[in-house]
């Protein structure tokens, strides 16, 4: 009986996730298309050309990793653990999200409190998927523009990533609904982004927490064991 319920849940989740994937794969593909179109211009400097190629490749990589994540959910793979530098993973996310943020009139602030790399044990693609989902939520919370602050900090035996926005914020009630499957306040939301984020962070032995204040903004913090 119990197995059957789990099975049904997974099927439902799969159906919802396929909807999300087909929806979310549009973003990187659209951005790649935009950069390829820019490359057609004849008056480009070499630097700009190089930059547009990088952006286009990043978009393709993102589309690939979305599909990979989806397939991993459908059929869990061996849990590959590698040494990751959270600073590098965060920088990757920023490069990817910058064109999107500019469209939304959002300024991005990034700061690292340590010069050294901050290593954890995890899976790069999964961490990137988490960061992207969290940053996307932050941007979507600022429809009239704002500031996205990203920080990494080093603690004695842990490392921390903070993602802060100056967006719509949440009431205590909304805050406590975070991570419930299908909870969304967006017209085209899926309410699955954070479900996936929370389960991935947990798999990497991390801890995620949120604080928020209505009409002021939201802070998200992720703490990992340092490796
Ligand atoms: P979706 O983005 O598809 O709605 P998520 O699971 O990513 O699904 O988020 C669920 C809900 O949590 C959002 O609809 C929104 O109401 C709330 N939320 C998440 N992040 C933020 C944020 N940074 N600021 C305000 N609300 C947020
Ligand atoms: Mg989301």
Automatic annotation (TrEMBL):
EC annotation from Swiss-Prot or TrEMBL: 2.7.13.3
Keywords: ATP-binding, Kinase, Membrane, Nucleotide-binding, Phosphoprotein, Transferase, Transmembrane, Transmembrane helix, Two-component regulatory system
Reactions that this protein is recorded to catalyse: ATP + protein L-histidine = ADP + protein N-phospho-L-histidine
Top-rank lineage group of the source organism: Bacteria
Keyword Transmembrane attributed: yes
Domain Histidine kinase intervals: 20-227
Keyword field contains RNA-binding: no
Any one GO molecular-function label of the UniProt entry: protein histidine kinase activity
Name this protein carries in UniProt: histidine kinase
Annotated organism of origin: Paenibacillus qinlingensis
